[in-house]
Design goal:
alpha+beta; Aminopeptidase; 2 domains; 8-stranded mixed beta sheet; about 35% helix; globular
């Protein structure tokens, strides 16, 4: 007979169990230090909760949830102006503006749930469904009943854990893949990586580097991030607003709070032209992985200096030289990430509309609003 399973929802990191970080040790994005960022510097339209899963009194699982109110977003993105986009935006505002996510919508990949490995079984996934039910009721009491409930970003293997009657009402979906760059053992230095490329892609690298000769790249401290905070936010917003679809925008102090909490695990690089900040990128050390985070740039310099491509090369160079095993390049810009050697890995999720009538149409409408992305995979290596 199995001992009793239960869960507890926390609204502040201060109250989570003392041994929380024991379960988070393989993923910095579940650590108390990172969750403190979500608590203090999450986007304005996002509310975060932290969930402990228990067997009797033992903490055997941890989970992050995010509630998004899309009605607070002035723009979902300014890149596409087609009729499909206008219809999608109207539908989301009217019928899907309140979204409950079990997982982390600010990252790509499974960064929202962790179990003690020996305890992982079907009953824990049933318990996650109970957690979702409790969170739905919690927001309903506040007059914010979620329209949509989503379990986010599982691998093809992980998603099979949800093959349970409790999830029959959910639609299984896959959107843009996660672009993952695996670092070969034979690459002792960045030069080894360049030497492994075909002539076409070596020439591309040389051309990009020549274009960026005049730029000064600087690793920025907390003080320097604070000093340039307004420019940083403007550069971030310039890129963010060009996305096909946004569910949130970062606050101006987000990177400052990030640096304060994660310290040396968070790297912030500024790109300067004649002492003017024209772009930045961010990296997070996560065990054997480097996770790329948000970036920003001035469009003029992006085109002139091939800035984005140079940023990708810099991220790769750092990760190889520091002996990391993978770079998580996340979604978007699939083709250019493919051109530097990243591979597409499909991720899956579950979605349900909490109106049973509208839920019957989720499968059809999802395919309409998320058409299959056409892009050409590249292979830059010999």
């Amino acid at each position: 007979m199995q001992s009793k399973l239960s869960f507890k929802i926390y609204t502040t990191v201060q109250n989570v169990p003392e041994d929380w970080n024991q379960l988070a040790k393989k993923n910095i994005f579940l650590s108390k230090e990172y969750l403190q960022i979500l608590e203090t510097a999450a986007p304005q339209n996002m509310d975060c909760c932290f969930i402990g899963l228990f067997q009797e009194k033992e903490l055997i699982g941890i989970c992050v949830s995010q509630f998004l109110d899309l009605s607070q977003i002035s723009s979902f993105g300014e890149r596409d102006h087609c009729l499909r986009t206008k219809i999608r935006n109207f539908v989301f505002k009217r019928f899907g503006s309140r979204v409950l996510i079990l997982g982390n919508n600010m990252l790509t990949g499974q960064n929202g749930i962790a179990f003690i490995e020996k305890k992982q079984n079907k009953s824990l996934f049933k318990l996650l469904k109970e957690v979702a039910n409790a969170l739905e009721k919690k927001y309903q009491k506040k007059g914010k009943k979620p329209h949509l409930t989503i379990f986010k970003d599982f691998s093809e293997t992980e998603i099979t854990n949800f093959n349970l009657p409790e999830f029959d009402s959910f639609y299984r979906f896959s959107t843009q893949p996660n672009m993952i760059f695996n670092i070969k053992h034979s690459w002792e230095t960045f030069d080894d990586y360049i030497a492994d490329k075909t002539k076409k892609y070596r020439d591309q690298f040389k051309r990009a580097r020549k274009k960026s000769d005049s730029l000064d790249k600087q690793k920025m401290s907390l003080t320097e991030i604070q000093k340039h905070q307004t420019e940083i936010h403007n550069l971030y917003m310039n890129v963010a607003k060009k996305a096909a679809f946004n569910t949130f925008y970062l606050g101006e102090n987000h990177f400052e709070i990030f640096k304060k909490n994660l310290k040396d695990h968070f790297l912030f690089y500024g790109y300067f032209e004649n002492n003017k900040l024209i772009g930045f990128n961010t990296l997070i050390k996560n065990g054997n992985d480097i996770d790329t985070y948000f970036l920003g740039y001035d469009d003029k310099y992006q085109k002139e200096k091939m800035l984005y491509l140079n940023m990708l090369y810099d991220m790769i160079g750092y990760s190889i030289n520091k002996k990391y095993k993978r770079i998580i390049f996340a979604r978007t810009a699939l083709e250019i990430k493919s051109s530097v050697g990243a591979k597409a890995v499909d991720t899956f999720g579950l979605i349900k509309h909490n109106n049973p009538i509208l839920n019957a149409f989720v499968a059809k409408t999802f395919k309409y609003f998320e058409p299959k992305l056409e892009w050409q995979e590249r292979n830059p290596f010999k």
